[in-house]
Design brief:
This protein is an alpha/beta fold. 41% of the residues lie in helices and 21% in strands. Helix 7 packs parallel to helix 8 and helix 11 (274-286) packs across helix 14 (316-322).
């Protein structure tokens, strides 16, 4: 084979590889309007949580109704990790708890500097769900002292809330509990296996993983009420934390359970093209009925509340949609 022939083949191969890989910023539409063949990554959460289920539904609707785009829902550790992924450009869209997002824009907590994120919408509320085994004797957060507790995946919104709950009850998360940083599927299995006394989870209602746990173990597990630690949580972290209730019909519990709720946000990088951000916001409401079929938490997404994302600024494209 001649040198000239080899050079031609190498050049052709380089062009092929360039076409397959491409520039990630171009692929995500940063500074561009929508164009054919672009793929969006949605950072969600644990595979048995609502983020993952609803994120999959959103990805499906993007592929069907946002011309020129396909989307993939990625399983992650959730809130903090999701924000980090959007900032790095590894994901385009992310589900996150509002308290983690507030820390991100302020550059505090898990974030050492303000992060360039913007909100597309406020979604449904997450409910902090603490489940303990009946034989552990845990009736309050303070009773977790000396117990084996899963505080959620590392860099998750659940972990942020779990550590704050323990501190609000006067416990040192590193000294007063045997803490394990497990995702929800692993936490549920560990409770079933007798390797954990309790788990903390922040998610929509119902969370499939907890439905499985309570269905499997029935009265051998129970929810821990959280109204006793809410005042300390609000005093330390503000009104992003609110009183909530898990109605007894959600999981078939004997009575309603008092808990703490936190809003969820859908966020993107501030550099996202305004046209794309506006189109995503419009799709969220145009296809809301389809998202409700994927998970009932989507019923709580309302246009009146969607723009209430403070202190996280709305993306300009989303703000234009809301008017």
């Amino acid at each position: 084979m001649t040198v000239k022939r080899v050079a031609v083949l190498l050049a052709a191969g380089a062009l092929f590889l360039t076409g397959c890989g491409g520039d990630r910023s171009a692929e995500r539409g940063e500074g561009q309007s929508a164009a054919a063949g672009k793929r969006l990554s949605i950072a969600t959460g644990n595979t048995t949580g609502v983020y993952y289920v609803l994120g999959g539904g959103l990805a499906d609707q993007i592929g069907k109704h946002l011309p020129g785009y396909q989307a993939t829902a990625e399983a992650t550790g959730a809130s903090v990790e999701n924000i980090q992924r959007v900032v790095r450009g590894d994901s385009d869209i992310a589900f996150t708890l509002a308290d983690s997002a507030a820390d991100a824009v302020a550059g505090k907590g898990a974030f050492t500097a303000p992060q360039p994120i913007r909100a597309v919408a406020r979604l449904y509320d997450n409910y902090t769900q603490v489940v303990a085994t009946a034989d552990s004797g845990v009736k309050s957060v303070a009773d977790l002292k000396g117990k084996r507790v899963s505080t959620g995946s590392p860099n998750s919104g659940t972990e942020v809330i779990a550590l704050r709950l323990l501190k609000a009850a006067g416990l040192d998360p590193e000294k007063d509990v045997t803490r394990q940083s497990l995702g929800l599927p692993e936490s549920v299995q560990a409770v079933k296996d007798g390797d954990l006394d309790a788990l903390v989870w922040s998610g929509g209602l119902p969370t499939p993983g907890l439905t499985d746990l309570l269905t499997s173990l029935k009265d051998r597990v129970a929810f821990v009420p959280l109204d006793g630690v809410l005042p300390a949580m609000q005093a330390e972290h503000g009104r992003v934390y609110a009183a909530g209730t898990i109605a007894k019909d959600v999981y078939g519990t004997p009575a309603d359970v008092s808990t703490i709720s936190v809003p969820n946000l859908l966020v993107v990088n501030e550099k996202m093209d305004p046209t794309l951000a506006g189109d995503l916001t419009k799709l969220l409401f145009d296809r809301k009925a389809d998202l409700e079929k994927v998970h009932p938490a989507a019923k709580d997404i309302t246009r009146d509340n969607a723009r209430k994302t403070e202190p996280v600024p709305l993306h300009d494209g989303a703000g234009k949609y809301y008017g």
